[in-house]
Amino acid sequence: MKKLLLLLVLGAALPQCHPATVARRPGAAKSLTIAFGSCNRHTLPQPLWDDIAAQKPNVWIWLGDNIYGDTDDMTVLRQKYDAQLNQPAYRQFRQQVPTIIGTWDDHDYGRNDGDKTYPFKKESQRAALDFLQEPADSPRRRQEGIYAAYEYAVGRKKVKVLLLDDRYFQDTLYRDAQKVYHPNLTGDLLGAAQWQWLEQQLRSSTADAHIIGSGIQFLPQQHIYEKWSNFPAARQRLLRLLADTRAKGVLLISGDRHIGEISKASVPGVAYPVYEVTSSGLTHPATNNAGEPNELRVGPLVTEKHYGLLRFREQQDQLFVTATLKGEDEKVFYTQEIEVGR
């Protein structure tokens, strides 16, 4: 069976050499469960936390819009983060899940469609890392941007998680009166330092699978909203990097869209299909979205409250993952079985 490449997010953390790499150790069993999601308005009902906790995830990954900050006032931003931390169901969830990691998108960054020109991005970074309860001596507190790497063991296999920062260095994108985004043909998303870091993480990796997470979608190109393809040079650079570094078993994960879906693409130079799991709509999915074009989609478009779930398992020296979009009361919207490494 062909090895697969997916953009997602992934239990026992192993040390790494780069200063932006963070080590965590949830446990080194032959299985690993990672849950993830995005678009969480702190003032709305949050019915999914007990459902997610019931899956007994080793890791929870925030994929952005973790709160709706939308402010230049850092006192207000911190008050909203504190409200989420103290939301009763989430507070209990934090006590049940061994490891919580994450990145951000625009609303928790501080401004809708926020980019590198946001004047309070350094202060916002400190607030976001405080919310994630990042240790005081964490490398993430000494760099610009909140990108980070993690490694987890699955039996004798290793899974590396790479969380990208798609806001701190993002070039400006024009949006017209009809709220349509116009591609920035030469624009960048990650910035020079983060690109260098990402290449080093992939080239030097000894992991058997790699999960790459971003606030906005990597693969879909047809919808009119925020996406990597609004920065076509950056998107092509990322896909080319996957081929050039020959990284094993890459998975992609993303949020932002208030919908859930799984996309699949063939990438030149990569010997297996690339999958992306988008999970977005913890509190307010786009229930009025009757359908939108995505020629890469496999399975349904999910417009109910949901979260993403990845169950990794080592089996006969191979690494497999079951990727699932799930809702309340164990409702399964779609499941995809994937072989990610051997």
UniProtKB/TrEMBL annotation:
Signal sequence coordinates: 1-19
Annotated Gene3D superfamilies: PhoD-like phosphatase
Alphabetical list of Pfam families matching this protein: PhoD
SUPFAM superfamilies given in the database record: Metallo-dependent phosphatases
InterPro entries registered for this protein in UniProt: Metallo-depent_PP-like (IPR029052), PhoD-like_MPP (IPR018946), PhoD-like_sf (IPR038607)
Keywords assigned: Signal
Residues annotated as domain PhoD-like phosphatase metallophosphatase: 78-265
Bilayer-spanning residue ranges: none
Entry superkingdom: Bacteria
UniProt-recorded name of the protein: PhoD-like phosphatase metallophosphatase domain-containing protein
Species whose genome carries this gene: Hymenobacter algoricola
Lineage, opening ranks: Bacteria, Pseudomonadati, Bacteroidota, Cytophagia, Cytophagales
